[in-house]
């Protein structure tokens, strides 16, 4: 069964509740779910002044096509009141599919592995906590190596420990 990696983010409303609810939902969809700690992070590449994000990452097995998983992620975002007034707006919950086994997907609504995750400390740091040895299917580098080489110096601090 392919291992799916998902990045979670929130900077609107009760950020921690949004992430916790999403992790509980994903635990029922993915097998053998591993969840990172929650990190508080500085906004990167957003429009205007925005509050800090909480970010986390989960990995788990998913049986089915990546577009089915994407549809479920978008449904969970909607359950948490996600609105999209414009690109880069503050959000209650953002669930991004970062990788899906070694698959490389180029569809209109989905590119996997996520094209910018190697540049984003707020994705790499949580992912490195749970799966440092995962090899990026296109770059041939592990998540730990991508984090070591990451030029993004934005702030990423542990906010809450991973739950058992
Ligand atoms: N998500 C973005 C853009 N910028 N910055 C942080 N710190 N965390 C995010 O989740 C994030 C971001 C686009 O989805
Ligand atoms: Mg995103
Ligand atoms: Mg998104």
Listing every helix as H and every strand as E from the N terminus to the C terminus, the arrangement reads EHEEEHEEEHHE
CATH architecture: 2-Layer Sandwich
CATH class: Alpha Beta
Count of individual helical segments: 4
Q: Name the CATH superfamily classification.
A: 7,8-Dihydro-6-hydroxymethylpterin-pyrophosphokinase HPPK
Note the gap between the termini.
Answer: 23 Å
Bound molecules: 2-amino-6-hydroxymethyl-7,8-dihydro-3H-pteridin-4-one, magnesium ion
Write down the overall geometry: globular
Helix content: 25-40%
Give a written overview of the molecule.
- With 164 residues, the chain is of the alpha+beta class.
- It has a single domain (3-158), classed as 7,8-Dihydro-6-hydroxymethylpterin-pyrophosphokinase HPPK (Alpha-Beta Plaits, 2-Layer Sandwich).
- Helix content is 27%, strand content 27%.
- It is built from four helices and eight strands.
- The protein has helices at residues 15-29, 66-79, 121-130, 143-148, and strands at residues 3-10, 31-35, 38-41, 53-61, 94-100, 105-107, 110-112, 156-160.
- Strands 1, 2, 3, 4, 5 and 8 form a six-stranded antiparallel β-sheet that branches. The protein has a two-stranded antiparallel sheet with strand order 6-7.
- A hairpin with a 2-residue loop joins β6 and β7.
- The chain is globular and about 35 Å long.
- The model has no long low-confidence stretch (mean pLDDT 95).
